[in-house]
Amino acid sequence: MLKINQLHKSYPIGDSSLHVLKGIDLKVEAGEMVAIMGSSGSGKSTLLNIIGMLDEADSGDYILDGLPIKDLTEKKAAVYRNKFLGFIFQSFNLINYKNALENVALPLYYQGMKRKERQEKALFHLEKVGLADWAQHLPKELSGGQNQRVAIARALAANPKLLLADEPTGALDTTTSYEIMAFIQQLNDEGKTILMVTHEEDIANMCKRIVRLRDGVIMEDKKVEQVRAEQYV
Amino acid sequence: MFKFLFDRDTWQEVFDSFGKNKLRSILTMVGVWWGILLLIGLLGSARGLENSFNRLFGDFATNSVFVWGESTGKPFKGFQEGRRVRLSLTDAKKIEENVEGIEFVLPRSQQSVAVTRNFLSGTFQMAGDYPLLDELQKKKLIHGRFINQNDIDDNKKVAVISEDTYKQLFEKDEKAVDQYIEVNNINFKVVGVFEVSNVNMGPSTDIHVPFTTFQRIYNKGDRIGWMMITGKPEFNIKQIEKDAKLLLKNLNDIHPKDTRAFGSFNLGKEFAKVTGFLIGMQFLTWFVGIATLIAGVFAIGNILLITVKERTKEIGVRRALGATPFEIKRQIVVEAVFLTLVAGVIGIISGGWILIGLDAAFGQGEDAAIVNASVSIAVVFIALVILVILGTLIGLIPAFKATSVKPIEALREE
């Protein structure tokens, strides 16, 4: 599904530069659920952004589903993001003046889907996250957990191959976090490949594999026994 | 390509972004609104003034020059300088026959006379005229008629008097037509009363009598007071004036370079000045209007720039979800054009109201200063096209700004 070879990335800071990723090798198979862990500054977010085509590596290869991701124009990157990737952010990043349904339908809009079809599909995904009754509500009228579920529905709307989550539970309390995790696990059970960045051990343990980063290199890459989140809910 | 313009979502986005910044958007639109308002208001007023001028001059053959004799300034062919030059009917006829581009040559004579009627009397300017005068300087007749060819042929003692003359010589509500007035002990029958026009070309006349009658009474013979030469519209009246004067000098034994022998008043030249002034005013109006418009459009660009800055994160999210830079730019340009157009249309409408107001205040009656103040549909259309072009151009600035930020940086923005 995803293959990364000797990935390097550095950011210029004034005159010098900060070497954030120092040769990352990573392979993720379809259906995996991987947690990327590390303290802040370890490069985990940068890695996720490069995988999400929001950022570009300085050197190294990145192949997504057999497609080399290199020297993309902004337009091509946008099309790939839309087609292959679903994003879940820590702060939900819903558009605050659009209701839940419109938010979920947004990726489909950029796919050029017709309005009616788009809304049907968006409603289907909202139903899946259990928020069909809240379709017409604005983000500010929903709780944090509900907002994150809307965001997940949005990430799923375009039926991406890979789901990228950047601290999906970072802004939520423990109970709600577990609810969201239970939901993400369920998606993984259905076959979605999921890559998430987190710094919380308990959340990471709910994945099937943990990759630990420190100072831009992978310290540890191990498969773990998945802790099911439902038992805490 | 323009399919997106009919997409509900495109407009949803525009209205959402407008609704989020209502006050600011409205304040911004004021700039464009004011520009268009000025443009329409000024252009309409300029047109109104022009119409008013045209109405005043419309009764005149403006392609005309008045020529009269003065004193020679150079000795010639044995004549000394300072000789009095008097024009004759023959001169007028020769000009009509020989100068190129002549429409009419109208000889006139005039002098001051004492007029009495019963116990009322006064001193008036009386002119001998041909019926043609009525065509060159339209007389507004309140009663009766102007002099006709019959009067000329039979040297009839008839008179057409001005309204003021009537008021001096007649009692209130008295009928003037078919009454007699006495000029130098000769009775003239009044056949018409005319209203004095606002614009007077040449000396003003109180009483018109047939030219032939006038010549005979005052023993003028062939001598005339002055002549009014009217050129065909396609001929330059300045050239006609030159040619006519040269011919007159030739006929009257005057040195060809003598500049003092004839006096003249070139109506065409004066009219061109007024027309030039009007054109200048229109140019100024366009200049002021469009300059204000540009300032207004820049204000819109400015506000969109701020809005884009505020929406950096949202734009980042959209791009993460698959919006291409082109789609983002297009959306912002549509917003810019929409704001300019709405402001422009409101400006056009309120400009129209101003013109209606002007028309009500100054546009009524015969001698209105502003007649039918209006702008043509073409002008409105041009203004709208300019707005769309300016709106697009100015929208491009925030549009490029919005996509110049990398999505990753945009997402980090708080």
Automatic annotation (TrEMBL), chain A:
It comes from the Bacteria. Residues 2-233 form the ABC transporter domain. GO terms for molecular function: ATP binding. InterPro entries: AAA+_ATPase, ABC_transporter-like_ATP-bd, MacB-like_ATP-bd, P-loop_NTPase. Keywords: ATP-binding, Nucleotide-binding, Translocase, Transport. It holds the Pfam family ABC_tran. Belongs to the ABC transporter superfamily. This is ABC transporter ATP-binding protein.
From TrEMBL, chain B:
Residues 287-406 form the ABC3 transporter permease C-terminal domain. Its main location: membrane. InterPro entries: ABC3_permease_C, MacB_PCD, Macrolide_Exporter_MacB. It holds the Pfam family FtsX. It is found in: Cell membrane. It is a multi-pass membrane protein. The chain crosses the membrane at residues 26-46, 283-308, 336-356, 368-397. Residues 25-244 form the MacB-like periplasmic core domain. Keywords: Cell membrane, Membrane, Transmembrane, Transmembrane helix. Belongs to the ABC-4 integral membrane protein family. This is ABC transporter permease. It comes from Flavivirga aquimarina.
